[in-house]
Protein: Ribonucleoside-diphosphate reductase subunit beta
Amino acid sequence: MSCCDTTPSQPHDLSRRINADDKRLINCKSVDVNQLCPIKYQWAWEHYVNGCANHWMPTEVPMQRDIEQWRSNAFTDDERRVVMRNLGFFSTGESLVGNNIVLAIFRHVTNPEARQYLLRQAFEEAIHTHTFQYVCESLGLDQRQVFNMYHEVDSIAGKDDFVMSLTADVMDDGFRTDSPENIRRFLKNLIGFYVIMEGIFFYSGFVMILSFHRRNQLTGIGEQFQYILRDESIHMNFGIDLINGIKSENPGVWTEGFQQEVLELIDKAVGYEVRYAEDCLPRGVLGLNAESFDDYVKYIADRRLERIGLPRQYNTRNPFPWMSETIDLAKEKNFFETRVTEYQSSGALQW
Ligand SMILES: [Fe+2]
Ligand SMILES: [Fe+2]
Structure:
């Protein structure tokens, strides 16, 4: 056979070709993880395509005005505390999420289209961590102070230790999703990261930082937070689709007892998040106070519970209706007028 002869020397076993119907989100035995196509889970592919269409880099956002404002007397000590606490929480929180994807979630998700999204999400988490390096560098902040807050500030350590407690089992080398009990452990990890960390723990910070942006202050950091918020809402939507997909493929795991456990987990998370808001806003600034966050965190938690098929628990009103508008606007393709729009149209380049 010549080097250019493509005729196989052995007849291939066509029965090994995959059927999309055989794909499973976890514990897939009959289809290998290297064959993206044919796609079964269209939602996973759509989240991947949307994530790519939203590509951005923190260094594209001009920081000059933020630097001038930060160095001036524009902010009170309480306002600086809000900014610093949130930089501290997000700077390491993004790494916790990225590491959980790579070290805990990825190897147990046995579906190529879901893995394709996880690879994209892991890169986005790296971009988010990069944002905090860039903000520290731009404003001349003490990086050791910012990146150590998750050890040094109780309200941040409380949230991070709580989600990390949900990853310990799954990170264990010997962990397998081979029994209903272990699938529940895996679901608890997914709920801990996608629903609690990215769906609840990030949102007080979004409100606080975007409140500066609404007053035309720290608009560079505000714009970066808008990009992060947009990415995070796709992360959460992917996670919710994954959680609901695993539930429907493994109906035995979603027992009454487990649902109760999840409700208790989310109630604990609400407590951590309210304490975080109280710690960020001991006296209230920017028209924000800890009581409004108590309502907001519970409002957000109710929305998340409904998405995973659990009943609302709190029935509070949304004290920040402008946040819904911000999230809706972020979904519109031309909302961001900087380079992101160009990335979106780059597919139309003629070569
Ligand atoms: Fe992130
Ligand atoms: Fe995320």
Summary: Residues 97, 125, 198, 232, 235 surround fe (ii) ion (ligand 2) (CB under 6 Å). Residues 57-331 form a domain with the Ribonucleotide Reductase, subunit A fold (CATH 1.10.620.20).
